[in-house]
Amino acid sequence: MGEGMKAGAGNGAYYIVAALVGTVVGVLGSAFHAGVNGLGAAWPAYLQGTLRLEGPALYAAAAVVAAIMTLVSLWLVRRFAPEASGSGVPEIEGAMEGLREVRWHLVLPVKFVGGLLSLSSGLVLGREGPTIHIGASVAKAASDLMKWSSEDMRGLLAAGGAAGLAAAFNAPLAAVLFVIEETRRQFPYSSRTYIAVVLASIASAVVTEYLTGDTPYMLLEVSTMPYGLLPAFIGLGVLLGVVGVAFNRTLVWSLDRVRALGLRHSFYIFPAIVGLMIGVLVLVLPEATQGGELLAVELTREGRPLAILAVIVLLRFVMTMASYSTGVAGGIFAPILALATTIGLCYGSALATVLPLPEQAQTAFAITAMGGLFAATIGAPLVGMVLVLELTGAYAVLVPVMLTAIFANMTSQWLGGRPIYEILLERTLAIEAEGRASHAPR
Fold it and tell me: What is the average per-residue pLDDT within 269-281?
C-alpha cells in the first residue's frame, strides 16, 4: 500500500475497524456485566429459595459452590491461557511494547467464561480488567484479519482496551485518558492511533448506554464543599498515598507467597480455601465480597458507624489480596474504588468527631478517596480524577477530587511507590525468564 493510501483510504479503513471493534466490545462488555450480576445473584438465591437450605447446610453448600466456581475458573486459565490470569492490563501493556503476545482465540473465551465464574463466585475482583483484556483481544483479532503492521496493531490494541474500560464503567473519556496516561510508554502515538482510540471508546460507550442505560454507574449526589475544607482533602490524599504504596507492595507479596505455595504443593490449594471462605462470606458478610461498586454507593448513603467501616476496610483489603492471588481472571479497579470509598468514609467520620463538617462532607470524602487511591496505586492521577467524576456524576467536587488525587500520587512517588501494572508486568516477565532458564540445557 502506498503512502497516499495510508494517509487517505487507509486511515478511513482504520477508523471504521476501530469503531467496529468498539461496538463489538460494547456488546461483549455489557453481556459480561449482565452475566456476572445475574449469576452472582442466582446461585445464592437458588440455595436459599429453591433448595430452602438453612443454617450449617446453607453455609456448607455456598462454600462448595463458590469454591467450585473459583477452581473451574483457575483450571480454565492454567489449562488454556495462563496470560488470562488476573487483570489483563499488564498483558496488554506488554503486547503494546512487543514483549507479550495476545492469543485472542484463547484469551477471549477463557477471560469471558473464567471471569464470569470468578466474579460471580463472590471473589473481591473487578470486571474492568477482563473487559479491557477482552477488548484488546477483539482488536487483535481484527488486526490479524486485516493483516496490519505492528504499529497499527499496537494502536488498535490500545483502542480495544479503551473500549473495554468504557464498557466496564460507561466512562469513555476516562478510557481515552487511560491509554494516554497509563500506556504512555507503549502507545504508538499519532493522530491516526489517537483518533482510533477515541472512536472505539465512543462506539463502546454508545452501545453500553443503549443496552444498560446512561445513568452514571455509581451516581452520588453531593454539593460544593467550602474552600476552608480543602486542607482536609489534601490530608486525605496524603493518607491514600501511603495506603496505595502498602496496597501494591502487599499485593505483590501475596502473589509471591501463594506462588511459592503452589510450586511446593498445588496451585489449587489456596484458591480452594479462598473459595470456601468467600462462599460463606457471601451470605454472612456480603460487604467483604464481590467487586464492590454498588457497595460503595450503599455505604455512602447509609452512614454506618466508624468502627463498622474500619472493619469493612480491613476485611476488603485482606480479601482483595487473597482473591487476586488465586490467579483467576479478575481485575482490581473495582476493589480499589470500594476500598477507597470506605477509607474516605472512615476519614470523614473520624474528622467529624473533632470538627464540625458541612452537610454531605462524608459523601465528598468518599468520592474524592476513589480518585486518590486510584492515583496512588495505578499511578494515573488524571485518569483517577476523570473516572471518578464520570462514575459518580459528582462534578460539584471537582477541585477536591483533583487535590486528593494529585497529593495521593505525590505521596506515593515520594515513598518510592510505582504503578501496580508496571510492577505486575515486570514480575510476569521475570517469572517467565526464570522458567526458561531452569529448563535450558546445561
Answer: 97
Question: CA torsion 347→352→355→360, rounded to 10°?
Answer: 90
Same domain as 188, residue 105 = yes
Distance in angstroms (rounded) separating the CA atoms of residues 302 and 203 = 36
259 and 158 share a domain?
no
Helices (H), 47-190: 55-80, 89-96, 104-120, 128-146, 150-169, 172-182
220 secondary structure, DSSP code: -
Note whether residue 1 is domain-resident: no
170 in the Ramachandran plot: left (φ > 0), alpha (ψ -120 to 50) or beta?
Answer: left
Same domain, 33 and 144: yes
Look at residue 256 and tell me if it is in a domain.
yes
pLDDT digits (tens, 9 = 90+) for 209-229: 999 888 777 888 899 999 999
Q: Which of 349, 347, 293, 287 is nearest to 318 (CA)?
A: 287
Distance CA 190, CA 133 (A): 23
Neighbouring residues of 144: CB distance < 8 A, sequence distance ≥ 6: 104
Residue type, 44: P
CB neighbours of residue 209 within 10 Å: 16
- How far from chain centre, in Å, is Cα 427? 19
CATH of the domain at 295: 1.10.3080.10
Nearest to 66 by CA among 111, 125, 17, 18: 125
Q: Which of 222, 251, 389, 377 is nearest to 324 (CA)?
A: 251
CA distances from 300 to 124, 353, 367 (A): 19, 18, 9
From 212, 247, 267, give the residue that closes a domain: 212
Please tell me the distance from the alpha carbon of residue 155 to that of residue 159, in angstroms, as a whole number.
6
**pLDDT tens-digit readout, 76-113:** 999 999 999 999 999 999 999 888 899 999 999 999 99
Whether the CB-CB separation of 241 and 414 falls below 8 Å is answered with: yes
Count how many domains the chain has.
Answer: 2
3-class SS letters over 10-68: HHHHHHHHHHHHHHHHHHHHHHHHHHHHHHHHHHHHHHHHHCCCCHHHHHHHHHHHHHH
Name the residue type at position 407.
F
- Give the residue among 406, 376, 424 at the shortest CA–CA distance from 255: 424
